[in-house]
Amino acid sequence: MNVFKAIRRRALAHYRTYRGVRFIVEGLLSSRHPLLAHLIPIRRCNLSCAYCNEYDDHSQPVPLDLLFSRIDRLAWFGTRVITISGGEPLLHPELDHLIRHIHRHRITTGLITNGYLLTADRIQGLNRAGLEYLQISIDNVMPDQVSKKSLKVLDKKLELLAEHADFHVNINSVLGGGVNDPQDALVIARRAVALGLGTTVGVIHDGSGQLRPLSPQEQSIYLQIHHMGKRRLSFARFNNFQGDIAHGRSHQWRCRAGSRYLYICEDGLVHYCSQQRGYPAIPLQEYTLEHLRREYTTEKSCAPHCTVSCVQQVAIIDNWRAPQRVMAPLPRRPSAPLVQVKSELRDSTEVVSAD
Ligand code: SF4
Ligand code: SF4
User: Fold this and answer.
1) Are 135 and 167 in contact (CB under 8 A)?
2) How is domain 113-120+128-204+212-249 classified at the architecture level of CATH?
3) Which regions in the chain score pLDDT beneath 70?
4) Ligand 2 within 6 A of 275 CB?
5) Are residues 345 and 51 in contact, defined by beta-carbon separation less than 8 angstroms?
6) Does the beta carbon of 302 sit less than 6 angstroms from any atom of ligand 2?
7) How many whole angstroms from 141 Cα to the centroid of ligand 2?
8) pLDDT digits (tens, 9 = 90+) for 263-313
9) Hey, which of 45, 53, 80, 150 would disulfide with 143, CB 3.0 to 4.6 Å?
10) Within a 10 A sphere around the Cβ of 262, how many other Cβ atoms?
11) Cα of 114 to ligand 1 centre, how many Å?
12) Residue 286: count of CB within 10 angstroms of its CB
C-alpha cells in the first residue's frame, strides 16, 4: 500500500472514531432521535440462503426519488446512522447515489452485503460515494445446501476489500443451528484478522429473532471470536448480552425498536426490526415524534430471548434511563409476502456504528 493511501485510511479511521464518540455522547444527552435505521432499497437477492426470510427473487429496485424522500425523513428525525440492507443492496443500480444522499445529510452510512457483486471498481465507487462501514456475513468455509456465503467463494472479495476499501470492513461469522461445523466460524474470523479486517460473530436465531442455546464447543468458539474483534470502540464490549447469548441465558434489556432503531422496508413502512415486520408497519412519511416517544417507552415481550444484536447494541445507550411499561400493541399489519423460508433459521446482523 502506498504511503498516501495509508495516511488517507488512517485519517478516515480517526474520523470514524470521532463520529462514533459523538454518536454515543449525543445519544446519552438526548433520547429523542433515532440512533440507527436500516433501509431496504431492494428486496431481491442473488442468493437464496435456506434460513433467510428477508429476500425475494423478483422485486424491482425502489425508485431513487422515493428512497431520497425516506432518507430526508430520517434526517428530519435526526437519525445518526443509516445502514443499507436488503435483499442484496448491490443489486440496486443507483446504490452509490443513495449513499451520496445519506452522506450529504452528514449521516453515517453503512452497507450490509453478501459480497458476491464486489469488484475493485465497485469498491472504489463506494469509496467515492462516502461509504463508512461495510459488513459481510460469511456462514461457512465451503458452500452447502444451506448457504453459499462461503469463505471459499468470497475470499477473493475479501482480498479486494483489504486492498481497495477506504471504509471499515467487518466480517461477521455465525454460530448455531444450521451451521454444519462450528470451527468454520473460527477459520473465517482468523482470515478476516489476517487481512486486517474487523470480525464479529452472530448467533443464528429462529424466525422471530429468538435465541437457541449454543453447545459447549460453540460457546467456546463464540467467546474466542468475540475477543478477537479488533474494534477499539465497540458496544459489545460493554454489553452482557453477548455472554448471555453464548450461554443460552435470557437477557434483561430495554428494546427501543420503533424509536432509537427503525427498520424501513422496501414499501417505506416502519417496522420494529427485520424479525418483527408488521409491527407497527406505519408509513415512514406518517411516522411522527409521538410514535417515536410511544415506542421508546413500550416494553417488547420478545426482548429476553432476542438475538438481533444491532438493536441490542444501540439500546445500551439508554439502558440507564427510565424503565419501560407494557402497552397495548398496535395492530399488526401484513407485510408483502417474501420467499418461503425453507427452514425457520436465519442469521443475526451486527450494527456498523463504531470503528
Ligand atoms: S441471508 Fe442475505 S444473501 Fe442470503 S438470501 Fe438472505 S439476503 Fe440474500
Ligand atoms: S426485542 Fe426488539 S429487536 Fe428483538 S425481536 Fe423484539 S422487537 Fe426485534
Assistant:
1) no
2) 2-Layer Sandwich (3.30)
3) 1, 177-178, 204-212, 229-243, 245-246, 248, 324-355
4) yes
5) yes
6) yes
7) 30
8) 999 999 999 999 899 999 999 999 999 999 999 999 998 998 887 888 998
9) 150
10) 26
11) 7
12) 11
